[in-house]
Amino acid sequence: MKGLLVRIEDYHEHVNDAEKKLLESLMKRPESVLGKSIQELAKEAYTSPATIVRMVKKLGCLGYKDFQNTLAYEVALFKESKEIAFQKITKEDTIEDVIYKVTKKNIESLETTRKLIEPKIVLECVKLLEKSRTVTLFGLGTSLLVARDLYLKLLRADVICNICDDWHAQLLTAKNLREDDVAIVISYSGLTEEMLVCAQEAKRNGAHVIAITRAVDSRLALEADFVLPVAATELIHRSGAMSSRISQLNVVDILFTAYVNRNYDFCMGQFGRTHIYKKGGSESD
Amino acid sequence: MKGLLVRIEDYHEHVNDAEKKLLESLMKRPESVLGKSIQELAKEAYTSPATIVRMVKKLGCLGYKDFQNTLAYEVALFKESKEIAFQKITKEDTIEDVIYKVTKKNIESLETTRKLIEPKIVLECVKLLEKSRTVTLFGLGTSLLVARDLYLKLLRADVICNICDDWHAQLLTAKNLREDDVAIVISYSGLTEEMLVCAQEAKRNGAHVIAITRAVDSRLALEADFVLPVAATELIHRSGAMSSRISQLNVVDILFTAYVNRNYDFCMGQFGRTHIYKKGGSESD
DNA sequence: CTTATTATGAAACTTTTTTTCATTATATGG
DNA sequence: CCATATAATGAAAAAAAGTTTCATAATAAG
User: Fold this and answer.
1) Same domain flag for B269 and B131
2) Does residue A55 form part of some domain?
C-alpha cells in the first residue's frame, strides 16, 4: 500500500475546485490539519463535512478518523526526514550542531543516493564484472580513495583488478584495455577531463565502462555503458568536506554486496583464504 | 517533554488494579489500542470510559483524542527505529533488498557514531590541531583511505601534514615527531599492532595522539590523548564490506568542519587559493 | 465505628463523525 | 438549444464517540 501522502499527491492532479485548496495545504503542511475536526476543516475550506468525508474515502481511508490516524502516522515518519533538508552549517554553529548537522547531511545523501540507484543497472554491472577478464579502476582526488576501497574489496573476492595512483599510469592502463575488460571510472563531478579521457580510451579499445558519478548527463556518463548515480550534494560551507564520497562508498558497498550475493559460495571460500588480521581484528582494519 | 510511552512505563509502577491490565497491553503492543474507541477499550479492560479518560489525563494528555494522536505518532517513530536494527543481508536477497539494506546499515552506523561522539573531545582535538606544528596521519588498509581523506582536507586548510603509504615509512615519521606535533591514528579495530607501535612511538617523543577507533578500551585508545569513537558495525555477510569507514569519514567531516568553524576567515581565504578544478567541478572530484 | 478521602461507572451531556436526501451544477445525446 | 442523465454539493438528521457529572462503593484515617 502506497503512503497516504503519496496518494494525496497522485489524486491531486485530477481534482475539482472545492477540494483543491484543501489538498494543497495538505501537501504543503500536513501537520496543520492534524488535530482538526472535520467541521473546522470544512469551514476553512469553505466546504462541508460531507464533502470531506467523501474525499478521504476516495483517498482510500475508511473515514475521517482513519484519515487522521493515517496522517498522524505518516507525518511522524516524514518529520524526521524532512527536518534534514534545511540544516545548513554556519559559522555560528556550536560543536554539537556540527556533529548533528554533518551527520544528517551525510545520511540525507545516502538516502538520496539509494533512491537514484536502479536495481537493473546494478545487476548489469554485476554481470559485467562476472564475465570480465580484468577490472580497472579510475579516479582522482577523493574519488581515487573510493576506487581504492573498491579495489581492496575486489581483491578479496579474487577479481583480477588494477588501480594506479597517478593519472599518467591510469591513462596507460586504459590504453592497454581489451574487449573483455571493464573500466570503473569514478568522478563525482563527471567533468574531470582526465577521467573522461580514460573512459574514452577504454571505450576505443572495446572495453566496457561503468561510471560512478553525480552527473548522469555529463560526457563521462554518455561515454559509459552503465552509470551508477550518486546524490548531488552541497559542500559543507565551501570547506571541501562533502558527502559525495560517502555516497560513492555506499554505491561501492551495494555493487560489491550484489556481486558477492550472486557468487556466494565462491566468494565465501575466497574470504576464508584472504583473512589478514588476527581474531577480533577486522579485514581491513 | 518525555515521550508518552516512557510516561506510561513510569506511571505503571504505582497504579491500581483496574488500570494495570490496560497499561500492560499498552506497553507490550501499543499499536493494538491505536484505532480503538474509548468504549471498546473500556469494555476490553472491564472498566468505564470515565476511568480511561482520567487515566490518560494523568498520563499528561488533554483527553482521549489527544492520547490517540500522541500514541499514533510515537508508534510510528518507534516502528521505524525498530525496523532498522534487524535487517541482515542474506544470500537470498534481491538486488532491491541489497540496495535498501546496505544503505540502512550505513545510515544506522552513522546515527550510532553521532551518539558516541562527545563535543568536548572534538573541541579538544580541534584545539590540538590549532596549536600543533604538524599533523601526521596513520592508518592501514581501509583506514589508510580515511587518513588520506583527512589529509586532502587538511591540505586545503593549509595545515602542515604528513601521510605515508607504507608502514615502515609511517613508523619512521612517528619516530621523528616532536612535542608540539599531533599524530592522528586511525584503526577501526584498535588492535592493529603496527598502529599501536606508531602511537607509542609518537607518545614517547612527547607528541599528542588522537585515535579514531571503535575500541575505546583498546591499548591504542589508552595510548591516545583523545579518542574519537566510531560505531562498532558488523561485516556485511563476512564480505569485508562494512560501514566502519563511512562512520570514520563522518568523524573526519565533523573534526574538519569544527576546525574550519573555529578558524573561519583564515580557512575561507585558503579555500579560495586552493581551488583546483574548473567551475562546476568539485574540489576533490 | 465513624468520618474523610479516593476511586468508580452509569447516565447525562457535548462534540464529532457519518449518512441521508434534496438541490444544484455539469455533461451527454438528440 | 433543450431535455435528460450523471455527478457534486451541503444542510440537516442520525449515529457514534468523547467528556463531564454525580451518586455510590471502596478504602484509609482518626
Assistant:
1) yes
2) yes
Q: Are residues B145 and B10 in the same domain?
A: no
Kindly state the average pLDDT of the residues B21-26.
67
Indicate the pLDDT class of residue B35, thresholds 50, 70 and 90.
Answer: confident
pLDDT digits (tens, 9 = 90+) for A52-64: 898 888 888 889 9
Q: Strand pairing of A235-236 and A241-242? A: antiparallel
Q: Report the Cα B123 to chain-centroid distance in Å.
A: 17
Per-residue confidence at A80, pLDDT binned at 50, 70, 90? low
CATH number, domain with residue B70: 1.10.10.10
Q: Is the CB of A43 under 7 A from strand D?
A: no
Residue B48 resides in a domain: yes
Are residues B9 and B131 located together in one domain of the fold? no
Q: Is A110 part of a structural domain of the chain?
A: no
Give me the CA A196–C1' D2 separation in Å, rounded: 71
Task: For residues B32 and B78, state if they share a domain.
Answer: yes
**Position B280 confidence tier, pLDDT thresholds 50, 70, 90:** very low
Domains: count for chain A: 2
**Residues 46-65 (B) near nucleic chain C, CB < 7 A:** 46-51, 54
Q: Quick one: B123 and B209 in the same domain?
A: yes
Distance CA(A142)–CA(A119), nearest Å, equals 26
When CB atoms are compared, the residue of B75, B189, B283 closest to A240 is: B283
C-alpha distance from A37 to closest chain B C-alpha (Å): 11
* Phi and psi, residue B163, nearest 5°: -155, 140
- What is the CATH number for A202? 3.40.50.10490
pLDDT tens profile B239-266:
665 788 999 999 999 999 999 999 999 9
Helices (H) and strands (E) in chain A, counts: 13, 7
Going by their DSSP bridges, the two strands A182-186 and B182-186 should be labelled as: unpaired
Residues 143-182 of A with CB under 7 A from strand C: none
Residues in chain B with CB shorter than 8 Å from the CB of A242 are 282-284
Range of the domain at A61: 4-85
pLDDT in tens, B9-21: 666 665 665 555 6
pLDDT of residue A87: 66
Cβ(A147)–Cβ(A249) under 8 Å?
Answer: no
Chain B interface mutation, best of A40, A98, A137, A187, highest count of B Cβ atoms under 10 Å = A98
